[in-house]
Amino acid sequence: MNSRPDTPAHEPLDPDAAPTRARFGVLAFLCSLSFVLYIDRACIGKAAIPIREDLGLTEAQLGYALAAFTLAYGIFEVPTGWWGDRFGSRGVLARIVVWWSLFTALTGAALGIGSLVAVRFLFGAGEAGAYPNAARVIARWFPLANRGMAQGFMLTSAQVGAASAPPVAQLLIDTVTWRGAFVVFGCLGFVWAAAFYYWFRDEPAEHPAVNEAEAELIERGRPAAPTTEHPPIPWRSILTSRNIWLLGLVQTCSSAIYYMFINWYPSYLEQGRGVSSQQAAWLSALVLAGAAIGCITSGYFNDRLARLTNFSPARFRYFGFAGTATAAVLLLLSVQAESATATSFLAAAACIGTMSQQATFWSVTTEISGRHLGSVFGLMNSMGIPGAFGSVLFLGYFVTWMREEGYTGRGQWDPAFYVYAALLLVGACCWLLVDANRKIADDERVPIE
What we know:
Blueprint lengths: L21 H34 L3 H29 L1 H19 L5 H15 L2 H12 L2 H56 L12 H9 L14 H5 L2 H31 L4 H32 L5 H23 L3 H16 L2 H12 L3 H10 L2 H20 L4 H5 L2 H16 L18
Helix pairs in contact: 1-5, 1-6, 1-9, 2-3, 2-4, 2-5, 2-14, 2-15, 3-4, 3-5, 3-6, 5-14, 6-10, 6-13, 9-10, 9-12, 9-14, 9-15, 9-17, 10-12, 10-13, 11-12, 11-17, 13-14
């Protein structure tokens, strides 16, 4: 329940009392949000072949539906991020989870390419607001030194959800068909939204489970809560910031790779490598488990580097470069492997490298955004949408075209991976040019004390 306006949310305690741990309850909600977000997003990858066979679609046509999700995701990230800044993340997050869960379930009702594209577009519109508002929650509930840890755990939970999607989807498809599988996945979000809205508060000081010591601990490392109406978004400063465009290009490149893995890799294993549907499910899960490992290690090393370098902003660029460049090399090696198992292990290692820079991306976004974190993060994350959009369309068209040219198996799929490796190298170079000393509000260099 909300505390009454004329009484504090928590009773004054002894100054030596240990901090309560309500912030870890918040982290649990964010982690479960990420899990549901990504299991709902990634389940379509394993359902791609039965969807195409049932609806009579080519890979290129299915690419339209996959791209519709990414298009809506990009369009709605900034508005939903602003809603969180303006109205608070509690109500906004609960509403958008209900929205995307509804359209996850309705995916199973698609009758053709038109309805499938429409439903996936509306599904993307709902999912768009999750991470901008989650970034705002972390900024309000965690001190600076622990944000990388929180971001790492949350992003890892997303990848655990994505890695769980192929085998769980395969089990449900075998049991209740692909249509019933989407209904089951959609039910998860309704439960989460109800529990979150009941328990969460936008400000730690308003939460009855937060004592004085925890409130002070959180307050030490975060910006003060706004006491006036939220100011207008400084779009001129944002859109002329070099960091915005560099980080947006990083997102474009890494999103292209990641969306290939979650949407097309199960089909690649079945059609390109000739494995069974069940084996493709588990090998796809292995690859996406690499993304989970990359996320959790990135949070740990991001926090450790922050302390070792006395929070030097230069740490962002080098960590981001190393992970992304390594991923490019590993992806190239995966194409050369002869067995499906070996190629999947190398692809999993490439996922580790690709996702290892995600907590760094979140941290540098928080560092430069100030009071406009939800809006800025929404914009920057949406700048990865061209990569995701282009990736799912490109690979769908590519394999359809290669089949029409007479190629099958690996010859139909493998050449596309060289394009994805080149994109990773572009993203690695962009990281070297990021300068976290430049803040969004005035885009002036802030000296390091």
